[in-house]
Amino acid sequence: GDISLNQFQLHSNSIMTVRPILLMGDPRLLLVARPIEAFSTPALDELIADMLATMANANGAGLAAPQIGVDLQVIIFGTGKLNPRYPDRPIVPQTIMCNPSFEPLGDEEEDGWEGCLSVPGMRGTVPRFKRIRYSGFDPSGTPIVREAEGFEARVFQHEFDHVRGILYPMRIRDFTKFG
To answer: Which candidate, 55, 111, 155, 170, has a CA 20 to 30 Å from the CA of 126?
Structure first.
């Protein structure tokens, strides 16, 4: 299942590099990313190490590979501790996931404020499914399946959108709640 940053470093010889984050307006953020076809590779380990370093450096709640210009379906989210950018939000377990997907558990949506490292300095109210079942694979190819609600469900859906070429402002319904 989950791999903590410390456990991940033990399995990886990669040097962690903070990479530049693409900003809204960059056409690479609008591409549908390609699925991971080979797990437990040095290239995947290096990508994940760089994503973890980049997310930590920016105090992100999550990060998707397309945000650092890599056209692959890899997302990371949660840190297992409080996030200084979202101090009032619950702790989300650290998750490293390849080829993510999800299904809503019911039709209920809830509006919530979101920000994005690719849309700096802005927040907007975005509708998301309240309860979901999400799935994918850890870096070794082991399946992950979880049910989530509230903030964890929101963070997953936000990161999932990135691998589908969708940025959160594209989901905003009320632009009086954006800025």
So the answer is: 55
